[in-house]
Amino acid sequence: MSKRSNNAARGYTIVELMVVMLIFSVVMTLISVSFSRMVRGSAQLIKSAETDIGGLIGLEVMRRDIELGGLGLFWNIPSDAKGSTSYFSYTEAPDHLKFVYNCLDGCPQAKPSLFNDSTYDDDRYIPRAYRVGNNVAYNGSDYLVLKATALGTNKVSRAWGYLNYTTTVVIPPRDAESQPFQDKDRVIALKSGMAGGRGVRELVFKQPGEAGFSVSYVKPFPADFSPKDPGDNFLVYGVDKPEKDDTLPLRFPFNRADYYISRPDEMSPNCASGTGVLYKAVITHGNPDPPHLPRETVPILDCVADMQVVLPVDTNGDGEIDYHLDLEELDALKTRDQLKEIRVYILAQQGRRDDSYSYPVADSERAVIVGDRDLMENPDDAYGSIWSSSKMAATFGRNWRNYRWRLYTIVVQPKNL
């Protein structure tokens, strides 16, 4: 009995305790490392999911706006008694308005006023539904301008209807989504028909040869903007809600949305250095004089590196795309006749930096392609931008490959030209 008691009372030796503690420490270290990796992995997945959700929502807004381009735009201006249209003018973006910031060169060609439709002699002040500034914005990205009545920031811009000689009120469409007009909504009227074998969408003025095109909606519709002949058919489009001063007219007869990349002073810490934010800016009908800034700006997508816009056209009318544009080469008429698609390519970061990940690069001179697939094989015959590994490193930092880069593609066939 005494021998067993002595052995039981002896306990563990220091060597045995050290071995146990060593094993325990190794096990806990392995658990801690595994847990840390799981946490980092889950955080990366969560951030990637947030990026995907935010990107889908924001880019769907952009896709819808592109599809609406051209809706409610006028194609013709009536001449005055002397056969001239010089009485008519308007200004969309005032000269002091600026959207793109923190460019190395200041991005002078991304000035919103440069995309006003007022400088072409052959179709003076006839708006073009789509305009593109090629490589003029942040990081050499494109600047996209959309024009349509439906691009406003309120329900009024989504209201439209018919007006003919026998009615005194605007008749809403039956088979299309449209908001009802409210008293004092600011609207425009277009005379619709055919002339010389071509469609006509003529902007209606209060008096022939006078510049008043803005109408305050009431029932019955104002006689000055109503059909005068039995064969006349008018389309009425909502543009903007009334200002505090109910008599204040529209500054221009449609709405305009600009899409561009800019880098704000405060960026998300999860974004790679050198990336920016994709914004949508709606130019409003408020006071255009300094220091007022007539615009409403909404962020669409964070951590954006580049945006390229390509406009495939059919120049010979055979129904097949035969030429791609990304420059200001089409006037309003050619845009309606020839433009077949609008393609937008957006390069953005997905999730946060992951040091365990390396972005795959097959060709260091063509590490990232933002644009047509043909850029890889025929860079001289396709449109977009090619990012080499060295350019990516110089723009977004040496660790640019530790980010997951995703190319978003939007392809829209215009339906409202």
Key traits:
eight-stranded antiparallel β-sheet, five-stranded antiparallel β-sheet, 25% strand
What is the structure about, briefly put?
This protein is α+β, with helices and mostly antiparallel strands.
Give an overview in words:
Helix content is 19%, strand content 25%. A hairpin with a 2-residue loop joins strand 4 and strand 5. With 417 residues, the chain is α+β, with helices and mostly antiparallel strands. It is elongated and about 115 Å long.
Number of helices: 4
Q: In which range does the helix fraction lie? A: 10-25%
Overall pLDDT confidence: 85
Separation of the first and last Cα atoms: 105 Å
The biggest beta sheet is recorded as: 8 strands, antiparallel
Strand proportion: 25-35%
Which residue ranges are poorly predicted, with pLDDT under 50 across at least 5 consecutive positions? none
- Radius of gyration over all CA atoms, rounded: 30 Å
The beta-strand count equals 15
The string of secondary-structure elements, in order, is HHEEEEEEEEEEEHEEEHE
Shape: elongated
Structural class of the secondary elements? Answer: alpha+beta
Task: Describe the secondary-structure layout.
Blueprint: H1 2-10, H2 14-68, E1 130-133, E2 143-148, E3 160-164, E4 186-195, E5 198-203, E6 215-216, E7 233-240, E8 255-262, E9 276-283, E10 295-313, E11 323-325, H3 332-338, E12 342-350, E13 368-371, E14 384-387, H4 389-396, E15 404-412
Antiparallel strand pairs: 1-2, 2-8, 3-7, 4-5, 4-6, 4-7, 8-9, 9-10, 10-11, 10-12, 12-15, 13-14
Keywords: Membrane, Transmembrane, Transmembrane helix
Transmembrane segments: 12-35
Protein name: Type IV fimbrial biogenesis protein PilW
